[in-house]
């Protein structure tokens, strides 16, 4: 039976649309996984392709619910010099996204009745600030602790074996002994505060911070050391970090980061040597977007292996200052809103990398975006991508 011309024309139009989507993926050297969730794959792929032009650093984007991976995409370069495409398995520095892991660890100890959230931190760690500062205030950034620029609080990965974290913290506390405000007076972000929370975890658990997080967060989720941890286990599985050559940040780098962190230019990008943060609890996690999405999946689950339903509510309860004014913080997340949907997020950025993860509990949805470049507006682009997912 002969086909009608209209039918043939419809078939060709459909094939052309499919071919266009395929081209987007091929041109950007991307890998993608999409579940049967009605996600507009072509629209998301188009947005992501715009962010990963030829010979540029890469991007990982993952969308999950409590049961499955809805969408997973990676594109761009993990290594510009050697033309290595970024895969979904490549790890990157997460920097301050680590703080939410620290908060989960603290809440686990609270759930086990080993600490109280309103305990004074001086019960567990020494510090030069007010004895009235509590664990809750550190978690919500209302402790009044200072927040000097932490970009130089790093050491080269190859120097890590001889690194002394205790001495590094003592140096920072000695150089910054004065609080910026009274405990509980107002919200003020502080990396020092989360560094001290790492000390609370160590004192109470008897483990190093990284050992505790592996044993109590990564291992229950069956996340291997190759997927997430606090060190680079395999060089060829870790993306290189980059800083754009023609950028304001590159001009300022002599004042912001140590010269030892600079490597060579690879086309229009400065390769940043692998570094570890001096305080792992405020920003030391290294992992893939996929690995972080597994943590978010557990938090979305009614039967989370990380926290009980009751304790998990502390991650979503908006906090207040001591005058009763609400702040856009929980005990571990910042609070945002997108298209009338409340979400909780943590952004992380530093030498060579930028990242952000979000969780939308009422929508049973979580997303992670990670890139191997220093300057990148994760908030802007994650909102664009998440809106496409929400509109399905």
What does this structure look like?
The protein is of the alpha+beta class and 392 residues long. The chain has a single domain, classed as Beta-lactamase (3-Layer(aba) Sandwich), CATH 3.40.710.10. The protein is 33% helix and 20% strand. The protein has twelve helices and 17 strands. The strands form five sheets. The chain has a seven-stranded antiparallel sheet, with helices on both faces. Strands 6-13-8 form a three-stranded antiparallel sheet. A hairpin with a 2-residue loop joins strand 10 and strand 11. Helix 2 runs antiparallel to helix 12 and helix 3 packs across helix 7. The longest helix is centred in the first third of the chain and has 23 residues. The chain is globular, with a radius of gyration of 22 Å. The N terminus is likely disordered.
Give the gist of this structure.
The protein is α+β, with helices and mostly antiparallel strands and 392 residues long. It has one domain: 3-Layer(aba) Sandwich (Beta-lactamase).
